[in-house]
Amino acid sequence: MTRDGRSGSLVGMDPDMTLAALPILALIDSTSVGTLVIPLMLLVTGRDGARRVAGRTVVYLLIIGAFYLMLGTALLAGLLPLYRALQGLLDSPATLVVLALVGAGLVVWSYYADPKAVRRRGGDPEASGRRWMERVHRALGSWRLLVGLALIAGVIEAASMIPYLAAMGVIAHAGLSFPMGVLVLIGYCAVMILPGLVLAGARALAGARMDRVLDRLQAWGTRNAASAVAWGIGIIGVVLLINTVPQVLSTLA
Residue 207 carries which DSSP code? Predict the structure, then answer.
């Protein structure tokens, strides 16, 4: 038990310490294709005025942010009571072993998903970025297609956003009520879309002066989107290993 009487983490960390990791997880999520690369594509491909381009990008970001908020709310609605019901099982040594194995699996997965490894297997890690650029071009000039683009990006990326799923576990573990958990989730989703909003604001204010910077950022983001995903997966895996392996070894000693 912690000093204030709350149960300890299933990975041996105080709930307040795990909550402190949420901004880091949100910033990792803010670099995903849906929350950064596609907004950059919208900012560099629109040619009908800086403010209209920025406004369209803001709408896209608000839609995808709302999508992740609704998804997270639904997950918390089921996860919070399940977590409380299984608290004893989750704190068991067997669970620590499972989490350590999951952490090791995530680290291995991060190496497998790394663009260099994909190229060695004969794959093209930038193919996904080109497909997204095609979708962005089709969505230009149509609010209906723009909404569809945001929802498609959210659905496709949701299953692979390991930091986001980890954040749901952190919120569930912290012992927050459902309304408080939703408030934390709102802040999390706001941080997710914040870099894109900042870039859209800079585009609206600076106009064509931002073109060169945004072009470079968009090219960099497209090239490195796969690397960002691999790094995010690897970081979560390492954190799990650091917080479970010592306890697993202590139970075996």
Answer: G
